[in-house]
Amino acid sequence: MSFIVRLDLRRIPPSFVPAGAEAFKRDLPNAVVKFVDSGHFALESHHTEIACYIKDFLR
């Protein structure tokens, strides 16, 4: 199983849109894509949510 956390960065190039993150599923069908409504410092503002995703992945 693969795991991807995509940060919702509002001021990023258009190539980093949700569809781009979802595209990983074409190459990695078991990929888990999570979207975090956050800015550049997602680990500071959403550390608990992201940590839960990572812990679930590692189980």
Quickly describe the structure.
The model has no long low-confidence stretch (mean pLDDT 76). The chain has four helices and two strands, in the order βααβαα.
What would your notes on this structure say?
With 59 residues, the protein is α+β, with helices and mostly antiparallel strands. It has one domain. It is 42% helix and 17% strand. The protein is built from 4 helices and 2 strands, in the order βααβαα. It has a two-stranded parallel sheet. The longest helix is centred in the last third of the chain and has 12 residues. The protein is flat and about 30 Å long. The model has no long low-confidence stretch (mean pLDDT 76).
Task: Write a concise keyword list for the protein shown above.
alpha+beta, single chain, 17% strand, flat, 59 residues, two-stranded parallel sheet, 4 helices
Poorly predicted runs: none
Write down the domain tally.
1
Q: How many helical elements? A: 4
**Which descriptor suits the 3D outline?**
flat
SSE arrangement, N to C:
EHHEHH
The largest sheet has its strands arranged as: 1-2
Q: Mind telling me the C-alpha Rg?
A: 12 Å
Helix share bin: 40-55%
Summed over residues and divided by their number, the pLDDT gives a mean of 76
Topology:
Blueprint: E1 3-7, H1 18-22, H2 24-27, E2 32-36, H3 42-45, H4 47-58
Parallel strand pairs: 1-2
